[in-house]
Amino acid sequence: MTATAVRPAFTTLRLDIDGDVAIVTIDDPNAPVNTLNRAVIEDFTRVFELLEGETAVRAAVLISGKPDIFIAGADIEQFLELKDAKDAEALSRHGQELVGRLETLRVPVVAAINGACLGGGLESALACAYRIAADSPKTVLGLPEVQLGLIPGAGGTQRLPRTVGLTAALDMILTGKNVRAKKALQIGLVDEMVHPAILRDVAVKRAREIADGTRARSEGHKGGAIGARALEGTPPGRAIVFHQARQRTKEKTNGQYPAPLAAIDAIETGYHKGMEAGLAEEARLFGELSQTEVSRQLIFLFFATTGLKKDTGVSDPAVKALPVRKIAVLGAGFMGAGITTVAVQAGTVVRLKDADTTRVANGLRAVREVLKESLTKRRTTRQQFDDQLVLVSGTTDYSGFRDADLVIEAVFEDITVKHQVIRETEKVMGENAIFASNTSTIPIARLAQASARPDRLIGMHFFSPVHKMPLLEVIVHEGTAPEVIATVVAYGKKLGKTVIVVNDGPGFFANRILTPYINEAGKLLDEGAKIEQIDRALVEFGFPVGPITLVDEVGIDVAGKAGNIIADAFGERMRPSVSLAHVLSSGRFGRKNRKGFYKYDENGKKQGVDASVYELIPGAVARRDYTADEIRERTVMAMLNEAARALEDGIIRSPRDGDIGAVFGIGFPPFRGGPFRYMDTLGIGEVVRRLEALNARFPGRYEPAPILTRMAAAGERFHPAD
Ligand code: NAI
């Protein structure tokens, strides 16, 4: 193909003319990904003007010069500069106009989509005459705005339903989830799927065909289930769909996230009053949502996570991570199998060791099951599944350990056992290899006592289930070498985890702040509160499950053991409840033996509260009602206070890390931004006042962390104001 480059004056894109087809290649040289930032928008505007005037050009192709990104969406930095709702509404209007011009351009535009096509990127593609997706796992399309507490603001709420139908559009917009190329083709979001190698050529060809009139513009909405199409095809049917969507959204969000409901309103307006009215409503709601606390907190989390991605874990930029090509995992139990799974998914060779062949086989089976699930859900191809499986091998001895770059132990939570495996492994490990422990409670410095080279020893605390939970706490003890920290942080990111580096101490960060919260829930039970009331109050606060359900999930035995270790270290304010100990000694372990605070059916599915638990609680206190406020005040304030103490003790490096650790590790409500952001919202003075009031009622449990008292007196906050 011959193409001549013309007008090199653009900064973020290239314009090539191939005969009568203009090829617009977006490739922002100043950013690793293409976003719709100011410079890109300016270039787009100029290119549109140019194409209007260039009569020799009869069609255009929009394509990206980045290998994995078409357009990743709006430039979120820009959102921070918005002063008020009007300002945000104007930004949305501007985006709508730009996208609208793409739709009404004199020449048909074909979007050639390779890589992430998200938010404003997809909204632009939706305004094109035809869409082609490259058949690659990197190609994902979606409108993730609700994940930032917003709605699509450049016409997405109007064009997506018109393209894929109401049901499929609601599914994408209300969850913010992506679809892959194949699914996009099925639902009519793209018109064609081709091999990445021919994407550009096919796009040029289609552009020309559309200009010639030998191919129609995209009609969209060819796919979707017939039932859904029939239902949404009539006004009464659509009324049902909207009603159901609102109901489901309210149930799912507990009324805490306004964006999905606003998106439904904007979509419905478009159906009732037409595109213009729909766009106006979309922009108005975008403006309104941009000013909500929820959106501000979700955007903070977005930037905090992005910041962590760039964080090497060490302050010295000269320290480089070592390559990790092969790892060995000790213990093929629940966690060992989980760690192995994510490692092979990241392409690492894994040697998995346990005490006997049956356990190794069970571990390998567990790995296979999760990989299989990915295959069934089409997140991976058969080829990838096969490739991943051959990366793992099992053993009952230390063969195959010598060339491992990293050994991760996940044996029993018992210091004697852990000391023994450290001694044994160090004898067979390579000289530079790193030993990481997945202990959930034992200080790394204590493990290091058994090590002949403590500088190569570190903690990697994964959360269960490993393949689903996004957080990894990397725990550094005094002697850990910076190179070891950098290596483990880089490897954690390769596993897809959000990594925070924490200092050594009982419970590290996440479990430390979880403990007083769980204890307090238990103490409410000791006093006569009802299990379901406690759980409901905290789910309403925004936790994914309540504390009693969480204990059942984690295992009452595991929670009990961890609670005791942390209580031994910190004393009175961490003293466990008596309820938990008594329920545990009755042989209830929670969901795993289908006997806990709740009842479980034979498949382990949670049923109602098991009222017989109340009889196990000493004193057989009569159950009485507690207000949700009282439950929340006691449990949440205990967690906030402990988070402040952990910061003061230097366990976490910054409030940002603490917020990320709490949100991604233990499900602190994301829309509150994390414990430190939440304390800022309440005001530190208010936090201290409330802690003091609680401490007067429960002496010794709520003494405000000294850092809080100091900050309150100085009028300080943890994060700068937005
Ligand atoms: P598990 O009991 O499921 O697995 C432990 C495995 O280690 C067993 O298969 C056992 O046979 C094996 N093992 C024991 N001694 C061994 C040795 N010398 N060599 C090789 N294998 C040996 O326990 P789980 O839940 O997987 O926990 C493992 C570690 O992960 C513990 O330190 C635990 O505290 C930690 N952890 C657990 C979490 C959880 O939610 N279960 C969360 C985070 C950390």
Describe this entry's structure for a reader.
The protein has 722 residues and is an alpha/beta fold. It has three domains: 4-291, Alpha-Beta Complex (2-enoyl-CoA Hydratase, Chain A, domain 1), CATH 3.90.226; 326-503, 3-Layer(aba) Sandwich (Rossmann fold), CATH 3.40.50; 510-650 and 652-714, N-(1-d-carboxylethyl)-l-norvaline Dehydrogenase, domain 2. The chain is built from 29 helices and 21 strands. The chain has an eight-stranded mixed beta sheet with strand order 14-13-12-15-16-17-18-19, sandwiched between helices. Strands 1-2-3-4-6-8-11 form a seven-stranded mixed beta sheet, with helices on both faces. Strand 15, helix 17 and strand 16 form a beta-alpha-beta unit. Helix 15 (357-376) packs antiparallel against helix 16. The two termini are 51 Å apart. The model has no long low-confidence stretch (mean pLDDT 94). It binds 1,4-dihydronicotinamide adenine dinucleotide. 1,4-dihydronicotinamide adenine dinucleotide binds at residues 330-336, 353-355, 359, 410-413, 417, 421, 438-440, 461-464, 554.
